[in-house]
Amino acid sequence: MPKNHNKKIGFLGPWGTYTQEALVKLLPVSEEDLIPYTTEADVIKAVERGEVAKGMVAIENSIEGSVNATLDVLAFETNLFIEKEIIIPIHHCLMARPGVKLEEITTVISHPQALAQCRSYISKKLPRASLEIASSNADAAKTVSEKSGKFAAIGPSLAAEIYGLDILDAGIADFEDNQTRFVLVGKEPAPRTGHDKTSIVCFIFEDRPGSLLQILQEFAYRYINLTKIQSRPTKKALGDYCFFIDIEGHVDDEIIASALKCLRCKVRDVKVLGSYPMANGVTS
Amino acid sequence: MPKNHNKKIGFLGPWGTYTQEALVKLLPVSEEDLIPYTTEADVIKAVERGEVAKGMVAIENSIEGSVNATLDVLAFETNLFIEKEIIIPIHHCLMARPGVKLEEITTVISHPQALAQCRSYISKKLPRASLEIASSNADAAKTVSEKSGKFAAIGPSLAAEIYGLDILDAGIADFEDNQTRFVLVGKEPAPRTGHDKTSIVCFIFEDRPGSLLQILQEFAYRYINLTKIQSRPTKKALGDYCFFIDIEGHVDDEIIASALKCLRCKVRDVKVLGSYPMANGVTS
Question: Annotated active-site positions of B, please?
Fold first, then answer.
């Protein structure tokens, strides 16, 4: 029997990540119930093992697109449910140990998504800096706080505060309106609220180019709104895709259930990642 | 007037990248006509400035999906044409300076796509190593050859040879059949060959969830095969996407021209990234 830590929630750590910020906004949690993990996959697998009751991970960013690591674990490696979602604004800061100046920086450390979101800024302001991947933005800040060289991290101001860094520049993402969608993952399907969204992955038969059209027609025919579609390789060969699709409605709604039933007759497999209450815009 | 370097071809350098390997397989080029650039965006912009006649960049991998940096520059920042494509198998090796052992490695350096393609290998075999981003796999090998610490690069065996590194492990990607599609970009549309593919980007109106269905219907109605579809954020807000679509046929084919004409009446914009001869499978 797995240990019963019913109240514990895993999140992409260490302390001070955007994920923690999103989690605290989404749920009334006390810090002692939170357990930081190193990667998105670690968070999700800790839920599956029963180490934590639920886990919080980023799934999509408005600049850089889907968080592939999260999508791939949910689609290929676990059978969990998305239970809630929240969208928060992302304000990236460049931070370094007190005394280090912008022009001295030799290495910028951050999560790959944050480095990609600030691609133009880095190539303009720090063209010679080397880029190092951290498992999270807060982990980048922590690493910078422990190193004596001319390092900088990209992350939230909260991380600068926690790890004693100075903020050298703020609002450094390449596009305005930088937002990230986070999801809370658990073992129980969320009940219908009447204002829900359902995330599915459709695995199509190879060499049937009309499959995506057939999928979309099932929804269009029933006036079901799509809020997201994202193709991902199935890791087998170029051109072999699966589709991550978000639709409005709950699997317990008759119309959604009927659409999924018909879909299952037409494609190789449909995996439901969860039905959950739809976020009402951005929570700042 | 830009300088006339008609024969010169830019590629993602330095010497020894998979991009160079793909380029040499695609065209009868001599080394003196090749100019290495640091990033995919640099290659494409050098073509636009007329510094080189054509440029070679990776566009899609069978494990990690689209190369976002390439898609974004082609869609949002230039008006060039894809003229040719080639798919080659990717065999990732872990390489280090002679004498460095696998278990001693503290840092793994590579292109973000290669790091993502070897995610499981790294977390199993080198769980404590830090990950550093290089602008290419060959650049990673070059950097490792110049550093005295316990560094390793992920890249092609050719790069190990060029930069005097030892191969510690081979075939380290997380899935078999790792393939990458590369495209040659230039200023002239390629002529019709009868065995062509067309790449387009569709920008849809916001808040019209049926747009993608309408796009696909235009092609299905005419029995035009789709070989790829990929959504990308337009960088404005979450849920605002454009679609990268590859279809079989040439813009000079009457049926394709007619489909694009009808599409343009329905969506905000359709940008043709090029019609070019379709690759016949993988070139090994």
Answer: 180, 182
Tens digit of each residue's pLDDT (9 = 90 or more) over A76-130 = 999 999 999 999 999 999 999 999 999 999 999 998 889 989 988 999 999 999 8
Task: Please tell me whether residues B85 and B115 are part of one structural domain.
Answer: no
Structural contact between residues B260 and B274, judged by C-beta atoms closer than 8 angstroms:
no
CB-nearest to A238 from B68, B87, B112 is B87
Would you call A210 and B220 a contact, using CB atoms and an 8 Å cutoff? yes
Residues B23 and B84 placed together within one structural domain of the fold: yes
pLDDT mean over A124-146: 92
Query: Which chain B residues touch A71 with a CB distance below 8 Å?
Result: none
B238 is in which domain, residue-wise? 196-276
pLDDT in tens, B213-267: 889 899 988 999 888 888 888 877 777 788 999 999 999 999 999 999 999 998 9
CB contact under 8 A, B209 and A232: no
Give me the interface pTM, i.e. the ipTM.
0.78
Contacts of B117 (CB under 8 A, 6+ apart): B61, B63, B64, B90, B92, B173, B174, B175, B178
Residue B191 Cα, gap to closest chain A Cα (Å): 24
DSSP codes of every residue in B207-224: T-TTHHHHHHHHHHHTTP
